[in-house]
Amino acid sequence: MRRAVCLLALGASNLFAGWKISKLPEWAQSYALAATTEKPPEDAEAWVLLERTEFAYMGNGEIRRRHFRLVQVLGEKGVGEAVFARHGLGGDSGRIKKLKGWNLRPDDTVTKVDRDDLVLFDSDEGSKVSTTTVSAAALEGVMKGSLVAFETQEMERLPMGAVAYAMPMESYPVRHWEVEFAKDGGWFSGVKAPKELRVAGYHFAPWIPAPIFQAYVPIRLENIPAIPRHEAALPNGHNVLPRVEVVCVDDAYGLPDLKDWDGFARWYIAQYRLKAKAVAIPGVAGAGMDALRSTSVWMSRELTYKQVYLTPERGWIPEESGEVIRKRYGDCKDLSSCLAGAAAQFGLKAYPALARISDGRIEESEGLNPYLFNHVISAVRLAKSLGFAAEVETPMGRFLLVDPTSRLTPFGWLPSEHRGGRILICTEEGAVWVRIPDTALAISTITEQLEAEVDANGRMVGLLKFKELGDAWGLRSAALHGTRKELEITLLNTLDLPSTAKTSLVFASDPLDLNKPFEVHLSLDVPELLHREGQDMVLRNICLPRAPEPIQKLGSPRQFPVHLGPSSPWTLEAILTFASPLAPVSPEQALESAFRKTTWKARREGNKVYMTFHQERPEVDFPFSQREEGVKQQRKDRSAIKRFVDDALSLKPVV
Known about the structure:
The chain is of the alpha+beta class. The protein folds into three domains: 5-249, Immunoglobulin-like (Sandwich), CATH 2.60.40; 261-440, C8orf32 fold (Roll); 445-653, no CATH class. 16% of the residues lie in helices and 37% in strands. It contains nine helices and 38 strands. The chain has an eight-stranded mixed sheet, covered by helices on one side. It has a seven-stranded mixed sheet with strand order 6-5-10-3-2-12-14, with helices on one face. Strand 29 (530-533) and strand 30 form a beta hairpin. The longest helix has 22 residues, at 627-648. The chain starts with a strand and ends with a strand. The relative contact order is 0.08.
């Protein structure tokens, strides 16, 4: 999440005389004055002259902050974007006590906001219903040349313990950035020293020289560059962008033990056991792993994923297992609680396993922070191996990992979102860290089978069958969660059809039948599929891959590492019957690059041409030291796949 204020851009240097600056709050004046003697960063829409946070621990998990921000607006794109926004858990868990804002325009006029101008927005979307809100206020009349300042006083009490974050880099360059630990007095009256204050910094190199990270020592940084723009194929910011974390260790009643991972794991399993009561599953009898497998099938068909957090702590504490069954919905914690309750009923023991998915990976160097996790799965203890792919051996024994939220993953496997992840199994004995092996991930592939006739005018009429193992292209998900029309749209998004093409979804199998591939049939009527180019006849590319977009703007040095996740193996088998005999120009070819391994075979029998395409794309990582090589290799791959497809789609008349 970006820090509290989203301020945009305008201005040029030396627009502010000293007497104008006096209309800003006193804390902003020296920073504004200093900027008049410096040249603003080139190509920036705004320049953050000051980003300062003072904070203190008040006991019982409460953190108070005082935040100051001053921005010089430099570009037209920023007009109208002088907005303050803060996410909160709602209720008494977080609030803004004070807000002031100033907009000093080049014409010497000043517009202001105060706390009365705050507007609360419900931040829920999709399947989420919660107490979380967004507090926002906007300054009027911001224009090119404005100086925009905000000052806030805020408090926050987090259910999993007091942890504060600060992210030095943002969309705009920052001239001066600091975090300071406040002294007792004023807004910070009643400061309580925690049992331990841990301060850590991550990923400062190669962006910014790392300061000293030490309890109660201010952190001050100068001339921070903006997060690079116009770059693609990026790793998650959690793993490459600088951040500061502050953890306040407290033994207040009800708070988790943040002294070490063992203490935290024991606290979490205690909360979990209060909720994961033994519970009967409708229609499921017996005992042991067979009953748990049947439970998993029942849950995938009967329970839906939904986040309903009517109290702030519900973002971290699960619902009771029986309530999940009664309501027929829950989030990841709730579904894991339900599975654990069923496991207890069947004579098994399941534990919560905390994970991070779709938002970077937890690194071994990271310190204790309960908010590293955004997902919960289950770890079922095993006396011996039962041959499941998602079994892991640990110092505390063998476990089977189950993700109850993944309705489309067969029991005994994990979905691909867990690739490369580290999870924390919480047991009564302490913490168990496990790195998920690739062999635990469910196999996903996509196969397309096209059989069609192409007439003398180049028009193709035929049937395209998709066979999806797992949820490789999201077809199962579309069938499960959407309408038949939405499934057809998902299918069409995988193709590159002209606007004149006609399609119809003629068949779809049961997406929850995980024992066989999900199958969908789409009829196609495509005018002008075949056209002449010189002496050759060329097919329109409707099924083969297109050349990827460049990941780097030409002439711009690469600043991020290059990262692309893997994709599911993809096979196309086509039988095309032409009005007259045509032979493939390229009967066989292969392409192997850092980004893909692709093969092609084609042969003619009479008026029929049989084509087979296969592609596999691995995970690609070029670290900071090799980022320019990554850009070079992607450009080579982009050119190579374009030539590959052009050759594959070329045919020549048989004389």
